Amino acid sequence: MARGNDQWREPVQGEAMVIVRGPEAYITPSWYATKAEHHRVVPTWNYMTAHVYGQLVVHDDAAWIEAQIRRLADRHEAGHEEPWSVDQAPADFVRRQLRAVVGVEVVISRVEAKFKLSQNQPRENVEGVIAGLEARGRADDSAVAAAVRAHDPYAGRP
Q: Which helix (H) or strand (E) holds 128?
């Protein structure tokens, strides 16, 4: 968090909650095979989300912050042909940047997750949703199609 953001200075009151959103996608009734049978279908939204609860810990410690920044950069740079590293930046620049940041950590005590992935639909509609998402190709569509497939209640059944 930016040091200039006063939120980190506020006393912690109770438990912290972080909302983590996964892939999501609009589901058109046109993908449902049952639409042709009875037209009793409506649009919906498939999604995955989690509420992560825990104790908020503020780290006003350059070494802790630098370790987190390095891990974050290394993780996200790993797939690049020429990954960037913190070590490529001048050391004095990195020190100044680290002074402008305060670390915030949530020590997790519990996670509450929910997903809606067409699990309430008959097999033919689930198949239509997967095919429609894969064909449409919008952001998150492939990930949602994979999640629908992974949570398909009909998988492995005739």
A: helix 123-136
